[in-house]
Specification:
heterotetramer; A alpha/beta; B alpha/beta; C mainly alpha; B: 6-stranded parallel beta sheet; 6-stranded mixed beta sheet; 43% helix; C: mainly alpha; ABC transporter involved in vitamin B12 uptake, BtuC; two-stranded antiparallel ribbon; 1% strand
Chain lengths: 506, 305, 340, 340
């Protein structure tokens, strides 16, 4: 039994009104990658938080290397050699990369921190991991993706026996994901056991040895690599088969009206001369590597960030958008990629969040809000999007990540904008829900709404977008029609750093 | 206001007479001395007194609340020193309605209810400070004032008494600056230093209460000025001022007779309870003291530490 | 979106039972601090009633209510500001400036009563507006923006009044605003307090301003990106709160029958303490009017009780500080989510 | 997705050049508020020098430095607290309590000078510890926990001293602590201020305590999840800051050669204003000792200059408030992300 690293059995955990885990079990061997999958809210993160000492379990046993252990604090978990990359960012934005990685373990002489050694250690670690980051930059200036890389570096710096990764790739693009997989292979070879949580099914086959499936807080089963297939896993997860959608069947015709026209958009920090058009009923994909500037395009258009120049036309009329409320008033909504920071009122209930963008529709001339009508709307979206929440008056913070994302989507659906910019709409969302969101986007487009979909997942862009704009380094490097697009072509454009600009005139 | 006069006497006053004193403050040594006088006389008369006042002499509202609470306690008499002469009127009417006799000390309320007041003429005291300042600097030169308040009555009257006297009687003396340090020793010291810096020919500085005066003394000490370069005239008493006068840093100061105020107030209240009519105005006097007369019995009696 | 396209056979994940348990527990959690504050209030009332018979008399109770009025009105307004995650340190001296301006309007300029009163209230609103502008548009931190406003208001009150109280003797009706008794035995100031509390309650829980107040305090950036003009609404919140400061200025002037230009500093901390004791979080996003009312009452009952018991003034602060700690500790019980 | 189709030679997205520009601009941004505060200071100095010849004399400059000492020391300590995202309102009256305790030790108990001084400092540390405990362990909000502590310290200072100043006449050396001149012409209090500033700088930027101070203010939960005992470190920060309060108490007592039990309230707001003017963010995570020193100097230069110019006291507050607004507005420039 020396290969057994971790044996978990009979774990239950309840939160007020929610049974997050009931009698869950799994085991982890040395040198393997165990995938943990399940729909949003299935209890994956909760289980991992128990293993890393953040939550205490209500019942059950944890054997670590054959010994029963009581993991009562993050520190205990660290001491045992259990290291975790959290689903939600857990960095200190005002500290540097190096300071973040070694927080709590600073090399010191007496009370003094050996700053230079700290920086060197971090630099060595980052080089060893092949992560391109300056250890002395402040984390607050990094993009979500880079912050995620910092988290990964931090978790790997522990030389842990058990490494838990809770959706590590949800903010990463292909290249970073690839780096991570290489790291995982290397760690496996040294005998580390890895628990890997992801909603990206294609990743499972690539790196995992076994898959454990949870549904609604229950243990469903474990599949060995040999009898593992994606449809089978999905079926176990959702309890019913899901058919993979094909590429879009409808076409956007040249004759359709141009609803949004952006011309010569520039920002001080990144964007250079971004121009494009969006037609009625179109889903326009935005592809690119991390930091390519897609989010910045969206933010600049809606007036969330300053732009140095550029014009925006809506339905053929030049408009002046100085702040997000202007954009929304013109029927242009933006769903941010970072739901925790920019999407949700975490401390407020689901109802408040869903109605936030459309509150004026429920307000009379005196400023009074008609609560019941609003609640009906909220309930409708909770049902139709299958948001897993005890009620619409539950605090949003307590929802699982994926369900939080659905709340943000519901907010924008309730606002009924004609143009919607979805920035990474399926980040952290389970397969079942993803399909629902895809269908939803298609329906919206079919109704005549126009959609910009920024996504780092190439399959999803290919599946949904009528046209695909590829960005690199703040520029548009290519525009592809769906029929001519392929992953290889997109990647080709996504990696043109501007020197080859002439070559990509389309 | 007192709707329920169902004569339930407040606990503890069935035998012992109880007089509630509402002062303008309690933290300054001046008020502590008033308190001391009141307690001395109360002990002698065998009555109970309580003494309270707001933390700062700007808190008119808080003082009214104290007065209201005092009335609700149904004492046998109330002694009151008004922070504002008008705001107190309705509450004194309420006291009258509750048949509680009221006497005043230090500063009065524009009301017919109070039977007497024990106080000092602060303007005259300020004028006496001016006379002494003029005498000490030889009747001419620049003088500055560090005040403790530009709004409460003692602050204003001690300042105005000084200023008016100088204007009226000493045309060669120029008051070059008046600033206010809230009676905060540190602030007053910094103000005095700034004044001395800004007016190199400054002959004298007048501080209108203990904190202001000691601030000036500290400033002179910190600047290491030769004794007598700037003539310091203070107000009130206290250990530090007496020391400064002994050592010669301060030329002298005006003291009122706060212990006497406290004694007279309790006495008047006691008389009122007993049905005697106390004297309408009890002037407890004020005195100039300096190194020469400080130890004299009549002066030593009104000084307090 | 066309809801019918979504699989409506999707199993309901939540059964009615859990829903109920959950919302009951949520409700309880939310009410806990309020109830504990309320419990503190009741304990104080009982304690003082037994400690001194003079305490539980109508005259004293109405005195307590009257002395709650000013701090209470300030606290009501500043509850909104605190829920947005901001703070307003200028309410104390701002109240004084409003009182002084009322005096200027009514006494020096001899304007009609209603005009003078509205002018005083508007003064408060204007200060709130300026603070709101500094905070929302110039992006100054609320603490420092309102600290500066506190100093400015304090200075202006002295300058404008000529460093001297303004007496309303020429306007005999003015006194009735606070001290008249539309309900016999109860000063109008108390009615004003409760009336304003009701209005504040309505605004906070029923109107769009209230909703956005909570939203701003929960996540301002998310609110902004949701198309809410956060700058405008933030200015509105500070202005609205400023109106309460103005009303407090009129009430205190009426109560004192004079505008005392040096009054006011220190009131802001008392009002903020009342708000926090009432369970409103300084981190924003959470709070209630009822809680604030209870918090203000705790403060004034406590201070009155100590006075009635003739506790020495120097000890009173110690006791008040200790009671604040205890009252607020209950709140922490709820938030304390240790490992268990 | 088949990742093997991905070109793994994908060039680095950030080339060294952009990285450099970025970090230079970051650096500049971080220094901007400090430099603007510094610019404000220089402007004030120049202005007052021209406005009144008495201003730029050694005697007045050393007077300004001396008058910065107390507020400056308080501000240094509280910089740490504010960087953690907390606040300490008890530093003003806490300083007074420390002064009173020093008096009790030295005068009433006649202990040796060094023991009395350390006792006074320890009093400050103890108060910091209690506040830290209330905040870190009992999870009280810092504002209210320290507001309560402010009241308690104020009351205790009066109670312990018997509402009477304690004079250090029996300990003649005591006065030398603040007013002796180890460097001729410069009071020791100024040396103490600069010495403490250097220590605070070392601690904040070079030690583990400083690191965790920033970490706590940046993201407390993440810090805790990283295995740092945040409770312990938070208590340490408040205790450390409390020691500065204690030292300020000793210095003010030494300067006044007495412990004045009624002083101190109001000092906290001045100290906090100095910290914020110096660019430390009330939201936590950002701040510097140099900035605080500059902030404290701005305040005292401004006040001294107005006094030298004989500006009427009532106008002084207005001007100070306005200058605070202007000084802090510069900070907002940095954070203001308008559309252009
Ligand atoms: N602190 C909490 N308080 C209350 N409920 C919670 C808390 N944390 C998690 N839950 C609930 O427990 C359930 C499991 O959540 P968990 O975060 O473990 O899901 P998950 O499988 O990680 O989902 P996702 O894929 O969306 O991240 C959810 O219903 C969630 O609402
Ligand atoms: N406010 C800002 N200040 C400075 N740089 C910024 C700012 N916002 C974004 N950037 C930088 O601009 C670049 C573009 O980031 P953006 O988020 O737009 O990229 P993206 O294509 O959406 O990638 P991602 O997948 O990371 O979201 C990044 O390098 C980021 O660091
Ligand atoms: Mg999760
Ligand atoms: Mg992005």
């Amino acid at each position: 039994m020396s290969t057994q690293l971790l044996t978990v059995s009979g774990i239950s955990k309840s939160f007020p009104g929610v049974k997050a885990l009931q009698d869950v079990q799994f085991e982890l061997n040395r040198g393997e990658v165990l995938a943990l999958v399940g729909e949003n809210g299935a209890g994956k993160s909760s289980l991992m938080k128990i293993l890393s000492g953040i939550y205490s379990k209500d019942s059950g046993t944890i054997l670590f290397e054959g010994q029963e252990v009581d993991i009562d604090s993050p520190k205990t978990a660290q001491k045992l050699g259990i290291s975790i990359i959290h689903q939600e960012m857990n960095l200190m934005p005002h500290l540097t990369v190096a300071q973040n990685i070694f927080i709590g373990r600073e090399p010191r002489v007496g009370i003094f921190v050996r700053e230079r050694l700290l920086s060197r250690q971090a630099s060595e670690l980052l080089t060893r991991l092949g992560i391109d980051l300056d250890p002395d930059t402040l984390v607050e200036g990094l993009t979500v993706a880079k912050q995620q890389m910092v988290e990964i570096a931090k978790a790997l710096s522990f030389d842990a026996k058990v490494l838990i990764m809770d959706e590590p790739t949800s903010a990463l693009t292909v290249a970073e994901t690839e780096t991570l997989f290489t790291l995982i292979e290397a760690l496996k070879a040294t005998g580390t056991g890895i628990i890997y949580i992801s909603h990206r099914m294609d990743e499972l086959r690539r790196i995992t040895d076994r898959v454990t499936v949870l549904r609604d807080g229950h243990y469903i089963g474990t599949l060995e690599k040999a009898d593992f297939s994606i449809p089978k896993v999905i079926e176990m997860m959702v309890g019913r088969p899901i058919e993979e959608g094909a590429r879009p069947t409808t076409r956007v015709r040249e004759a359709d009206d141009i609803v949004l026209k952006v011309e010569g958009l520039n920002t001080r920090s990144l964007l250079k001369d971004v121009s494009f058009e969006l037609r009625r009923g179109e889903i326009l994909g935005f592809s690119g590597l991390m930091g390519a500037g897609r989010t910045e395009v969206a933010r600049a258009i809606i007036g969330a960030d300053p732009r140095t120049s550029g014009t925006v036309e809506i339905n053929g009329k030049a408009v002046s958008i100085k702040k997000p409320s202007d954009a929304v008033a013109l029927g242009l909504g933006y769903l941010s990629e970072d739901r925790k920071q920019f999407g949700l009122l975490l401390e407020q209930d689901v109802n408040t969040n869903i109605l936030l963008a459309s509150l004026k529709d429920y307000t009379d001339g005196l400023g009074f809000v008609h609560t019941n009508k609003g609640k009906q709307t909220s309930r409708r979206y909770v049902d139709s999007l299958r948001i897993k929440t005890p009620s619409i008056s539950s605090t949003t913070k307590n929802l699982s990540g994926g369900n939080q994302q659905k709340v943000v989507i519901a907010k924008w659906l309730a606002r009924d904008c004609d143009i919607l910019i979805f920035d990474e709409p399926t980040r952290g969302i389970d397969v079942g829900a993803k399909e629902e969101i895809y269908r939803l986007l298609n329906d919206l487009a079919a109704e005549g709404k126009s959609i910009i979909m920024i996504s780092s997942e190439l399959p999803e862009v290919l599946k949904l977008a009528h046209r695909i704009i590829v960005m690199a380094n703040g520029r548009i490097t290519g525009v592809l029609d769906n029929e001519e697009a392929s992953q290889a072509k997109i990647m080709d454009f996504a990696t043109r750093m501007g020197h080859e600009k002439e070559a990509v005139q389309l | 206001a007192s709707g329920s006069n169902t004569a339930a006497p407040a606990a503890g006053n069935s035998k012992e007479l109880y007089i509630a004193l509402i002062s303008k403050g309690f933290q300054h040594q001046f008020w502590q001395a008033v308190k001391k006088g009141a307690e001395q006389r109360a002990a002698k008369l065998g009555v109970k007194v309580t003494f309270e006042g707001p933390a700062s002499e700007t808190e008119v509202d808080a003082q009214l609340q104290m007065l209201q609470a005092a009335i609700d306690k149904k004492p046998d008499a109330i002694g009151f020193a008004a922070l504002d002469p008008k705001a107190c009127i309705p509450l004194l009417d309420a006291a009258k309605a509750a048949k509680i006799p009221v006497v005043e000390f230090d500063a009065g309320c524009d009301s017919t209810v109070p039977l007497s007041i024990a106080k000092t003429d602060s303007k005259a005291a300020g004028a006496l400070a001016a006379d002494n300042m003029a005498r000490l600097i030889g009747g001419k030169g620049e003088v500055g004032i560090v005040g403790h308040s530009q709004i409460n009555s003692t602050g204003v009257e001690r300042r105005d008494g000084f200023v008016n006297q100088i204007k009226a009687k000493y045309p060669d003396i120029k008051i070059v600056d008046i600033q206010y340090g809230d009676g905060d020793h540190l602030k007053s010291a910094d103000i005095a230093k700034a004044m001395i810096a800004a007016h190199p020919n400054l002959k004298g500085l007048y501080g209108t209460n203990e904190g202001s005066a000691i601030g000036i003394v500290n400033a002179v000490g910190e600047l290491g000025l030769a004794k007598g370069k700037v003539t310091v005239v203070g107000f009130d008493s206290g250990q530090a001022q007496m020391d400064a006068i002994t050592s010669g840093v301060m030329a002298g100061a005006i003291t009122q007779n706060p212990i006497g105020i406290g004694e007279q107030t309790v006495q008047a209240a006691y008389d009122a309870i007993k049905g005697k009519t106390p004297e309408k105005i009890i002037d407890t006097g004020f005195f100039w003291y300096d190194a020469k007369n400080m130890t004299e019995a009549n002066i030593a009696a009104v000084l307090y530490k | 979106m066309n809801a019918s396209t979504v699989d409506t056979r999707a199993p309901k994940i939540v059964d009615p039972e859990t829903k109920k348990t959950r919302s009951v527990s949520n409700f309880l959690q939310a009410k806990l601090q309020q109830s504990l504050a309320f419990a503190t209030l009741v304990v104080l009332l009982i304690f003082f009633s037994f400690a001194n018979t003079a305490f539980f008399t109508w005259s004293n109770i109405s005195g307590i209510l009257l002395s709650t009025a000013v701090i209470g009105i300030l606290a009501l307004g500043t509850t909104f500001v605190i829920i947005t995650g901001g703070i307003d340190l200028s309410i104390g001296t701002g109240m004084t400036l409003a009182a002084v301006m009322t005096g200027i309007f009514l006494v020096n300029m001899d304007l009609p009563l209603i005009v003078g009163v509205l002018g005083g209230i508007a003064t408060g609103g204007l200060m709130g507006f300026i603070s709101g502008f500094n905070i929302a548009v110039l992006k100054l931190p609320p603490f420092i923006a309102t600290l500066a406003m506190m100093l400015i208001a304090q200075g202006l009150a002295l300058v404008i009044s000529g460093v001297r109280p303004i007496y309303f003797t020429s306007v005999p009706d003015f006194k009735q605003i606070a001290l008249g008794t539309a309900i016999p035995g109860l000063p109008n100031a108390v009615l004003i307090l409760f009336g304003l509390a009701f209005i504040a309650y309505l605004v906070l829980s029923k109107t769009i301003l209230g909703r956005y107040t909570f939203a701003l305090g929960s996540n301002e950036e998310a609110t902004r990106l949701s198309g809410v003009d956060t700058r405008r609404w933030k200015i509105m919140v500070y202005t609205f709160s400023g109106l309460f400061t103005g009303i407090a200025g009129v009430v205190i002037a009426s109560r004192l029958d004079s505008a005392q230009p040096q009054l006011g500093s220190g009131y802001e901390l008392q009002a903020i303490a009342a708000v926090i004791i009432g369970g409103t979080s300084l981190l924003g996003g959470r709070g209630s009017i009822l809680g604030t009312l209870i918090g203000a009452l705790i403060m004034s009952v406590l201070i009155n009780g100590l006075r009635i018991m003739s506790i020495q003034t120097e000890w009173q602060n110690v006791v008040v500080g200790a009671v604040i700690l205890v009252a607020v500790f209950s709140d922490s019980l709820r938030r304390r989510k240790a490992i268990f």
